[in-house]
Structure formats: C-alpha cells, structure tokens
Design a protein that fits this description.
Elements (H helix, E strand, L loop, with lengths): L2 E6 L7 H11 L5 E6 L6 H7 L4 E4 L4 H7 L2 E2 L3 H4 L4 E5 L2 E5 L2 H8 L8 E5 L3 H12 L3 E6 L12 E4 L10 E4 L14 H10 L2 E4 L7 H8 L3 E3 L2 H16 L5 H12 L2
Bound molecules: NADPH dihydro-nicotinamide-adenine-dinucleotide phosphate.
Length: about 260
C-alpha cells in the first residue's frame, strides 16, 4: 500500500483526497491519499520522508517552497519555479507542476487562440502564462499592484492605472476576487471594455459563480470555471503517482470524487 498526501495551509477544505481516493478505489488499489496541514514549510521534505510518502500534492501557499526542497525538478515546473506534485524515487523528491497542463487541458474547447489576458499575478498566473506562452499564445498580465508583476519579465504587464484595453480573445481571472466577496478582479469599466471584444472567459475559482463569470455570461461570452483545471491537474498528478496512463472511466471516478460533499 502506498501513502500520498496533500500539503497546504489550510487543507481541510480540499477536495483532492476524495478525488484521488475515488480513483484508487475504482482501480481496486489499496493506496491512500490523506491531507497534512503544513505550518512550517521548511519541514516539507523532512515530513514527506518521515511519513514514508510515495507522492504528494502541494497547495497554497507552499508551491514555491516545494520547488526549492525537491532534489530534482522536471519539465515546466522549472520555468514556473513552483511545484504542485512530488513523487519519491530512491528517497529523492522529484517535483512537477501539473497546474499548467491541467489548465491547458481544461480550455481545449476554446482553442486555437491568438491571445489572452491574465488578470492577477500570483502563483496560478505564473503556471497559466507559462503554458500559454509554450503554445504560442500571446499573453498580457493585468494586476492591481506592481510588486508581483516583476515575476513576469517575458510578458507585457500593466497595473490598472496604466492599462489601455485592447482586443483579447480569452480573459482569465486568476485573482481571488469573488472567492469570499462580490468583487470584480479589476474596476468595472476596464472589465466591460475587455468583455466587448472577447470570446471566452475563464475563472480559476471553482466552487462558485464569481461576479466576473456572471458579468461575462451576461455579455454572451463562453465561460468556464476552474473545476476542470482542478480535475485535470489531479489526473496528471495521479498518472505520475501510479506511473500509468488512466482511462476515461478512472477520470470519471475522480470527477465523482470532486462532487462528493
Ligand atoms: P496568489 O495569492 O498567489 O495571487 C493572487 C493574485 O490576485 C495577486 O496578483 C493579487 O494582487 C490578486 N488579488 C487578490 N485579491 C484581489 C482583489 N480583491 N482584486 C484584485 N486582485 C486581487 O493566488 P493564486 O494565484 O495561488 O490563486 C488565485 C486563485 O486561483 C484562488 O482563488 C485559487 O483558489 C485559484 N486556484 C485555482 C486552481 C484550480 O485548479 N482551479 C489552482 C490554483 C489556484 P496583488 O498582487 O495586488 O496582491
């Protein structure tokens, strides 16, 4: 039996354990996926090894620290400089980032795209901007303050005050505006001018309809929330955990896991 865990703070709300355990049960495996509230991120590697985990996912706010604690970092996680999935190989921690590909799989119905605007400049914006750039989609970033924009030197970046809206096919909200309030991710006049010429809207928030998505729907944009991104980052992590490709039935079991209360 292999043991897996989600590290984060907080972690009690997370649907990842249900999603992964549903897939293990569906495949007849005895493996278990649990959660671990990590207060001191500097202890991530030590705790991982002490619990004899075979693999783990890392969530907010520890993805950057996880990147630094891995013995080896693979593929796009190197560019993003953040890790959300770890597997153990001979007591070495190997880090991956499945958020980026998970996002890209979740917008497949919107492709092909020429350009996109990402609102927000945190961890999820880093993963999403990287995967869009790798797929030759032109990306601009809009954030309310300057500081985090320093992490996006390869992109056109603006704050609300110096932003001149142009035509973007896809608008992406990666801020937490709307998560626990009724805020839009930028001032309403900016959002409205963007909506006029956009085709699609995506919100990384997954468990509710945000004011951003509500407004985009009212203006007939094709909209998507972050549920499929959550699912597909989990599917890709599960494939790394089990070193196998999973089929549609197992993905369906994970989807059911996400819907369990
Ligand atoms: P971070 O904390 O790293 O970044 C948050 C960003 O949002 C910052 O740029 C911040 O701006 C901006 N922001 C926060 N509040 C507001 C507000 N009220 N108005 C405008 N801008 C705001 O967060 P993450 O990138 O890790 O996560 C962002 C969201 O994405 C969360 O809601 C999270 O749940 C969701 N998410 C979903 C995933 C999925 O699989 N569906 C995966 C990962 C995240 P400033 O720099 O000015 O502070």
């Amino acid at each position: 039996m292999n043991l897996f865990a989600l590290f984060g703070n907080p972690v009690s709300h997370s649907k990842s354990p249900r999603m992964h355990n549903c897939a293990f049960r569906h495949l007849g495996l005895k493996d278990i996926y649990t959660r671990y509230k990590l207060e001191d991120p500097s202890k991530l590697k030590e705790i991982f090894l002490k619990l004899q985990l075979s693999g783990a996912n890392i969530t907010v706010p520890h993805k950057e620290v996880a990147y630094l604690q891995c013995d080896e970092v693979c593929k796009i996680a190197k560019d993003i400089k953040a890790v959300n999935t770890i597997i153990r190989k001979n007591d070495k921690l190997i880090g991956y980032n499945t958020d980026a590909d998970g996002f890209y799989m979740s917008i497949k119905d919107m492709l092909p795209l020429k350009n996109a605007l990402i609102i927000g400049a945190g961890g999820s914006a880093k993963a999403i901007s990287c995967i869009l750039k790798n797929n030759n989609i032109e990306v601009s970033i809009l954030n309310r303050s300057k500081e985090k924009l320093k992490n996006f030197t390869d992109f056109q970046t603006n704050t609300w005050t110096n932003f001149k809206p142009k035509k973007y096919e896809l608008l992406i909200n990666t801020t937490s505006a709307g998560l626990n309030d009724d805020e839009l991710p930028a001032p309403k006049d900016i959002i409205l001018s963007l909506i006029k010429s956009a085709k699609f809207a995506f919100d990384a928030i997954y468990h509710k309809q945000t004011p951003f998505i509500k407004l985009c729907k009212q203006h007939n944009l094709t909209c998507k929330n972050g549920e499929d991104m959550l699912l597909y980052q989990g599917v890709l992590a599960f494939e790394l955990f089990t070193d196998s490709k999973i089929n549609a039935d197992t993905i369906n079991a994970m989807k059911i896991g996400l819907q369990l209360k």
